[in-house]
Amino acid sequence: MKKIVIISLLAVWLTACGSGLDGTYADANGIYHYVFEPNGKVKIREQGQMQEYDYQLEGDQILIDLSEESEEVLVVNDDGSLSPKGLKDVYLIKQE
User: Fold this and answer.
1) Domain 21-94: which CATH class?
2) CA-CA distance, 74 to 55, in Å (whole number)?
């Protein structure tokens, strides 16, 4: 039993430490701009200002905590681009 608990905790810890995104993602029109840090923080440019939020990865979705009552969901596409959930034809591409 102890072995199962230790292995489970180790798996959760490794997932938490290694699952962060890193880099800037933006759409072609410059409307959407996200700077992800591997420590679970993301900076989003909104109305010309950068705001910092917490995020977490869950499968192929990125959950961004905008407030206690609100979150934004981005979907990780097969090609590595990101799309705001519910918006068609909006693709955030990693910037070089």
Assistant:
1) mainly beta
2) 10
